[in-house]
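Troubleshooting log. The previous structure file for this entry was overwritten by mistake, so regenerating from the original sequence record. Sequence copied from the archived sheet and checked twice against the printout by T.R.
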Amino acid sequence: MKKATLIAAIVLYAAFDPTGYAQTIWRCGNEYSQKPCAGAKSFDASDPRTSDQAQAALDKAGRDAKLAREMEKDRIAEEKRSGGPVKMVVGVAPAEPPHAAASAAKHGKKKHHGKEPEFFTAVGPKKAK
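Regenerated output below.
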């Protein structure tokens, strides 16, 4: 995997060599092309960086990729140690504590035994007749 990444970086560097040729890009409306069209505007798309700056950027990208792979390995190892990814349930109301039901029964309060609606419906005051 490391060799493939290195080879890809070398090929990309060779293809976009900042010390190489400059090419003109044409903007035709919202599209870009290497060939001019009617009303096209041209601009230079060469890389203004020096070869040292470009190499430094490639080196940094390689270090960042290596760090990302190490962090992924650490995360996977931690998930295996803890029994897998954390599972959460979102949107479920917490259960009523057991002492609340006993307290309501003791004081003669009626508890709603029907099924709770799955969604909220707002109701305004009823009109007087």
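Strands lie at 24-28, 31-33, 41-44. Archived copy saved in two places this time.
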